[in-house]
Amino acid sequence: MDFEFSEQEKLFRKTVREFAQKEIKPKVREMDTKGEIPSEILKGMANLGLLGITVPEKYGGPGGNFTLACIGAEELARADISIAIPVMYLVEASWASVFARHGTEEACQEILPRVCKGEYFFGIATTEPGGGSDIVGATRTEITKKGGKYVVNGEKVYISGVKESTTRMKGRYFTSAYIDKNAKPKHRGIAAFICPVEKGTPGLTPTLFEDMGRMGISTGGFALENVEIPEHWIIGDPTKGFYYLMEGFSAARVLIGATCLGAAEAGLQTGMDYIKQRKAFGKPLARYEGISFPLAEAWCKVSGNRLLTYQAAWMMDKMSAGDPKYDHHKVALACAVTKLRSPIDAVDILNEVADWHGAFGYTKECDIEMGIRGVRSYSIGAEGGMNIMRIIIARELLGPEYVPYDRPD
After folding, report:
1. Domain boundary among 95, 120, 145
2. Are residues 30 and 62 in the same domain?
3. What would the 3-class secondary structure string for 278-316 be?
4. What pLDDT score was predicted for residue 218?
5. Is residue 407 domain-resident?
6. Is this model's pTM higher than 0.90 or not?
7. Where do the H-state alpha helices sit in 206-288?
8. CA gyration radius for the chain?
9. Which phi and psi (to 5°) does residue 56 adopt?
10. Which residues, listed in sequence order, are joined to residue 234 by a DSSP beta bridge?
11. Which residues contact 292 (CB under 8 A, 6 or more apart)?
12. For the chain, which terminal residue's Cβ has fewer other Cβ atoms within 10 angstroms, N or C?
């Protein structure tokens, strides 16, 4: 058992931390106010190989594993406590990796090099107006083969990067739809494919929402009316789209764990710096047990989540390397655990740190409020709600016969 990072991983962390603290951290409040990630930051991330970090070298990426990807997510969130940049980073790192494994060679060569250069935004679009986590029951979008192409009709909502994809970049989204509504079992009728989201796409109507946090990156949706998809943009076996989605959700969840870990670490460090110099009744706040004891509890949560997150990443890497001891069930359990604990604990820690700051903590002069608004998106449910994580964990502990839904085979 070895808890040490490799020399390569240590160097990568040092490189990302230096870039993020110098180039990103000073601009976080500006991003949160203006609602945009500066182009020079995206260019710098592309130059460091941070965009599409898990994309194989043959498709223009650095070929990083999930341990490396988690280090990147943690360090980006340390700098951008609002987690806008980490959101973009993690959706590309997770879903582009699944696409690289299962997409056609032609589609991967077309799309992934441009993702790594920052020309394309690569996102995930599964949520629909009628529901999110219940993909089998809530999906209404349909994809139909027509000649040498596919035609898509439906709607997706609460999707990251819609504004970016229809203005400064072009969007390519890992998307799901029913290709056979009569399939038995039903989930075998769900296909995964790449959907184009860009200005001027015939039949595509984008919509934007205003979130409470992570303001540097947009959230929106898009309606699809007879949108045409090239045949080679279908991902893998059309009857296995559901399984590709589950693979992608596990990948995204471990990176969410790392993102919330980094934001919690940044907030806790800010809090420690503050309570050492802020005085009450002639003594630093750090000398009062009402402050130092919650600090100790918070540090335990951060330490525990670090172990949970990197264990899940390590298991992801083992599974990707073909180790038979680590199948999707074991990995899904580990990723659900870190997705359940890290966001909830991050919200608790940042709220506690805000309390230490008193009235100052309730102002926008204090960066902690950006963190609270940002990580709250993941404790609410992006990439699966908290109760979905509890269902996954209970399923793996008790057995699939105890799930509250009709089981896929």
Report:
1. 120
2. yes
3. CEECCEEHHHCHHHHHHHHHHHHHHHHHHHHHHHHHHHH
4. 97
5. no
6. yes
7. 241-277
8. 21
9. -60, 155
10. 193
11. 275, 286
12. N
User: Alpha-carbon distance 209 to 68, whole Å?
Assistant: 32
Range of the domain at 151: 122-240
Domain shared by 208 and 260, yes or no: no
Distances (CA, A) of 390 to 261, 278, 385, 393: 19, 40, 9, 5
202 located within any domain: yes
Task: Please give the tally of structural domains in the chain.
Answer: 3
> Cis omega before residue 26 (within 30°)?
no
184 & 301 share domain: no
Contacts 24+ apart (CB under 8 A), 135-140: 135/176, 135/187, 135/190, 135/242, 135/245, 136/186, 136/187, 136/190, 136/242, 136/408, 137/405, 139/176, 139/177, 139/178, 139/190, 140/178
Same domain, 214 and 312: no
Say which CATH number the domain at 376 has: 1.20.140.10
What number of helices (H) and strands (E) belong to the chain?
13, 9
Parallel, antiparallel, or unpaired for β 279-280 and 142-146?
unpaired
223 and 328, same domain (yes or no): no
User: Where does residue 242 rank: exposed (0-12), middle (13-18), buried (19+ CB within 10 A)?
Assistant: buried
- Summarised one tens digit per residue, pLDDT across range 372-409 is 999 999 998 788 889 999 999 999 999 988 888 766 55
* Residue 150, CA distances (Å) to 39, 72, 189, 227 in order: 34, 36, 15, 8
* Residue segments in the chain with a per-residue pLDDT below the cut of 50: none
- Phi, psi (deg, nearest 5) at residue 128: -125, 165
Q: In the listed set 120, 135, 156, which residue is the last one of a domain according to the structure?
A: 120
Q: Identify whether 215 is part of a domain.
A: yes
Instruction: Please check whether residue 409 lies inside any domain of the structure.
Output: no
DSSP class of residue 131? B
